Amino acid sequence: MLRNKKIAAVLALVLMFALVVTGCGGQKPAEQGENAVPAKEEIVVAQGADAKSLDPHATNDQPSSRVMKQIYNTLVTANEDMEIVPGLAEKWEQKDEKTWEFDIRKGVKFHNGEELKASDVKFTLERMLKSDKVAHIVEAIESVEAPEDYKVVIKLKEPFGPILSHLSHTAASILNEKAVTEAGDNYGQNPVGTGPFKFSNWQAGDKIELVANEEYFEGAPAIKKVTFRNITEGTNRTIGLETGEVDIAYDIEPIDKDKVRNNEKLTLIEEPSLSLAYIGFNVNKEPFNKKEVRQAINYAINRDDIITAVLNGAGEKAGAPIGPKVFGHNPNIKPYEYNVEKAKELMKQAGLEGGFKTTLWTNDNPVRVQIAQIIQAQLKEIGIDVAIETLEWGSYLDRTARGEHDMFILGWVTVTGDADYGMYALFHSSAKGGAGNRTFYENPQVDELLEKGRTSVDTSEREKAYFEVQKIVVEEAPAANLYYQTQNVGMQKGIKGFRLHPAGHHRLFGVSY
Amino acid sequence: MIKMTETQASVPTTPKKRSIWLEVFRRMSKNKMAMFGLAIIIILVLTAVFADVIAPYEEVAIKQNLAQRLQGPSAKHWLGTDEFGRDIFARLVHGARVSLKVGIVAVGISILIGGTLGAVAGYYGGKIDNVIMRAMDIFLAIPSILLAIAIVSALGPSLFNLMLAIGISSVPSYARIVRASVLSLRDQEFIEAARAIGASDFRIVTKHIVPNALAPVIVQGTLGVAGAILSTAGLSFIGLGIQPPAPEWGSMLSGGRAYLRYAWHVTTFPGLLIMITILALNLLGDGLRDALDPKLKQ
């Protein structure tokens, strides 16, 4: 009996403490926000998914890239304006059509203390070429040589215009040979780079902690500790910002944007990104083999409605498959106008006045599911009876790669900011299926132009080829391009120096609080 | 002897049958909670039947009006509009159709399969019993919602697959109930008598055992409909249930959850309706159990 009472007393105490502690937890950050102490050295960044791996060759997904960007450097970097600037390579020179020479920065130290040598670059790119996840990014490379400690020579199979953009991809981050060999299969959880932040700790599914690299070659970062938190629900990221437990939140949900914007302690920054959302048609299947049907659907979709209702305005109507921030974008191509009469007429021309039944696939992304429902209602106006099927992400990718679909919704991020990355995979006949061309579109003229754009090194010639490709693929319409997504980040007012990167992996070096 | 058994055997079947159910109803009518549940269920059934009269499907329930999205309750839209500007009241009315259909058909499937297996196991006993019931035990070890998710993912989401998945996942509980009743009935005199006059196993089971084992199945079935409606809502919530634009309570709930902080009505009303329906079915089930239990009466 006495014992029970004791236990009860202890429990009561614990409960009291719990209440006091949680009560404090709710209050404290708000107070700090008001005082706005400038010398805060730790920041918490929230994003919608955990990284898969921090080995750049093991994955090619945005959440991982966003963390890797802080740990690693690439030979050359695309800055926030998508200009190529020096990274680990101080300067570079094109020796001939197929040979590039890079001078490696001297005295750069990896986080494990090793000095960066040309041999590390050779090792990295050769390892990358063997990766089934990211080899396609550097497939143009024939060989990599390290004739001197600080000189790398890259030989290409064929002339390849966008090579520098591709080398700026986070997947081409430079690794340390010794660290990779020592860690073996565990390298993805023990990354070693040259970047402004060192990896410190990873609680899978919850958070990744990074600490400042005081010896970083561009100088020590102002922030001493960065925590990447995985907060899946968009609403919860916003709430995190409001309560102050999160300092920077990526991808604020469209509906929450005004709430962040109107909060005097928070700022919302918004800019166009490099991503496109589109509806793809399976051009091998009836009736999508008819150009008129594909165009009719393009005319029947009211893109403004989608952008207002689903994105709360956070998008720009898309005509061409690559957006205005991407090199090679053709500004003369206008989005298909919303014109039901014209759509009906085209259906008539295709001999399908009475409409037809079909399916539209989407994965369980809430934005895509909503778009699917709006398109379902809009296509009904021209007699197309659409059934929506929601698939799990893995099987969605597999089955669209095999061509089992009629119509599908997907996005494409032109990470390198170059038309080659944005269109070769989507429209070249060699990329049919899993590589990106899920519409199974084939046009010899487009193939030829895409190859020309890829192999030519003359900028204006490349641009001309890509302008032409966009004209053809918009007119032939293997896809209905919907919008270029605007990206946003919400953060505490006190955060300074943060800039959005069009590719979505923002640099935290240079940020202060 | 023969004469006696014949009269005895026919007692529980034809002439008195109607009066038994009347008696049950009379007993249940004294239970206010149960009658409340019954009233709500009747209203829901009527709503489902006359859904098209109350709110036309094409013109109201699935008609999008993006200019009027997420509006609060008003005279025009009694319960407000959802994220596509559709009338929530109309969608709830049509959702009742889906929910009740899935609930009843799914329970029908599980009673049919579970009842048959349970009757066979209980009647024959021995090895057959062992094999069937161990298989059921294995089934029971898998959480039923997980099983339903697996079945729907394998077959693809559609109304029929949903009913099948929910039906199959609750087969074992019916098998157990029927088996237990059959075991207690199997050795009673009137069965022995039927066997003595040469009735076939099939006739004994269908004519004599099943009608007498019905009471607990009805109770379980009523509660089962509630469970099935909840499972449907759950599966639709995660996108495996009814596919858009068809209205379903669970998917309405899931569609509105992103707007919880700005438009409370989008999730609140479907949630309330699910709660009331489940409550009503459970009250009715409890009432039926009490009314059907002869021991409680005395």
UniProtKB/TrEMBL annotation, chain A:
Location of this chain's protein in the cell: Cell membrane
Keywords assigned by UniProt?
Signal, Transport
Q: GO annotations under biological process?
A: peptide transport
* Record InterPro entries: Peptide/Ni-bd, SBP_5, SBP_5_CS, SBP_5_dom
Q: Name one Pfam family in it.
A: SBP_bac_5
Indicate the segments forming the Solute-binding protein family domain, all copies: 83-433
Predominantly, its location class is membrane
- Superkingdom of this protein's organism: Bacteria
Specify the protein's topology with respect to the membrane: Lipid-anchor
A single GO molecular function, which one?
peptide transmembrane transporter activity
A single cellular component GO annotation: ATP-binding cassette (ABC) transporter complex
Kindly indicate where the leader peptide sits in this chain: 1-23
> What protein family does this chain belong to?
Belongs to the bacterial solute-binding protein 5 family.
Give the protein's recorded name. Answer: Periplasmic dipeptide transport protein
Natural source organism: Thermotalea metallivorans
UniProtKB/TrEMBL annotation, chain B:
Q: Where are the transmembrane segments?
A: 102-126, 138-156, 213-242, 262-285
Q: What membrane topology is given?
A: Multi-pass membrane protein
Write out the annotated subcellular location. Cell membrane
Predominant localisation class: membrane
Q: Which GO terms describe its cellular component?
A: plasma membrane
* A GO BP annotation: transmembrane transport
Q: Kindly state which keywords UniProt assigns to this record, in alphabetical order.
A: Cell membrane, Membrane, Transmembrane, Transmembrane helix, Transport
Q: Which parts of the sequence belong to the ABC transmembrane type-1 domain? A: 96-285
Q: What PROSITE patterns does the entry give?
A: ABC_TM1
Q: Which CDD domains match?
A: TM_PBP2
Taxonomic superkingdom: Bacteria
Sequence similarity? Belongs to the binding-protein-dependent transport system permease family. OppBC subfamily.
Q: What is this protein called?
A: Glutathione transport system permease protein GsiD
Source species of the chain: Thermotalea metallivorans
Name of the gene: gsiD_1
